[in-house]
Amino acid sequence: MDEIKLIEIKEDIQADNALVAQELRDRLLREQTLMINLMSSPGSGKTSLLLRTIEALKDEISIGVIEADIDSVVDSEKIAETGIPSVQLRTGGFCHLDATMVKKGLDGLDNPSLDLVFIENVGNLVCPAEFDTGAIKDAMILSVPEGDDKPLKYPLMFTKANALVVNKIDYMQLSDFDTARLKSHVNRLNPDIALFEVSCKTGEGISQWTDWLKKTVAEFNGTAG
Amino acid sequence: MDEIKLIEIKEDIQADNALVAQELRDRLLREQTLMINLMSSPGSGKTSLLLRTIEALKDEISIGVIEADIDSVVDSEKIAETGIPSVQLRTGGFCHLDATMVKKGLDGLDNPSLDLVFIENVGNLVCPAEFDTGAIKDAMILSVPEGDDKPLKYPLMFTKANALVVNKIDYMQLSDFDTARLKSHVNRLNPDIALFEVSCKTGEGISQWTDWLKKTVAEFNGTAG
User: Does the predicted interface ipTM exceed a cut of 0.85?
Assistant: First the structure.
């Protein structure tokens, strides 16, 4: 494999993607829809966090979900059960979503009056961080069993995210995870990140996250439109 | 982004990679070195499993490690402390290793008499499964907190792996992870996979994994050379 050739291809793809992403963001501003791109490793709890979030907010805020999965519909079935508008993108092996795929998802929701749309990206700490999805905000989950050293090893996602949800704090008792050490690593990359400590299993900490979402939707509606 | 164009690029890269991978495998056969490509999500315990494995086997088998990391040297420092030959590949953002990168790692080890070389791939359940590294065997880790549904969502890696190490069984008491359900999902994809249940934290189950490694090295030495 010729390394220089690969980099050129990547730059072409990125330039095309950036254009589509900007068009998508312009549309979201017009439609006053806050779209949040939710990323994490496999099994960190993206779907569980969405289910908790929908449960807490669906009577106050109109929510939609664009689900991505390489090959299954496991997660989107759970989201569909909540009754909120949702679509499933099957990536067919792709390791991330780009703006064109997300645009198809937003078209599929076919509902320009939504206040808040979540993209559940492919479970992957690497590739999704490299592609602008067109979302207004990026959020990520790190679960306690993954370890507090992940910002050192996957720095781009921690640098890009506006919010970091530390999930599975109910595992803390069996783990040597050190939240102070995590914060120190994250602060060096991204001092402005909003950090939440939650357990999607017990519900602990979820209200701080949903309060931040309500505030962020309100601020966005104040600036958009 | 033009989807058809991207697929063509991917096929070109894959064809080039397959050639390099086959050359690498021919060399490993000549040198009688069993190279195992170890893959998992971020934080599943690749480095911890390697440390346990080195501790158990280093007096019987000569071992080397090719470490990959996007941007840090956290893991390779831990491996270097064991005193076994190791090299670090810094991928600079790449989400997987290909055969050319692995060849550079094997050249860097500069030791054709090793019995067993591990590649610690980038933490990612998607992309590493798509690229032939030139390894003789593929092994993967799934940790209990990630959940037993991962074969449904990341099928390619579970289909390709010769061995599956279920790590962090010490978390089982706090989890709804169901090993029978995992086995049922995996068996549909890959009935021949060797499955091990371990805790790198407590050492439980490690000897079954290292026994399999010893047997696999001995069988490979019987066929190679």
Answer: no
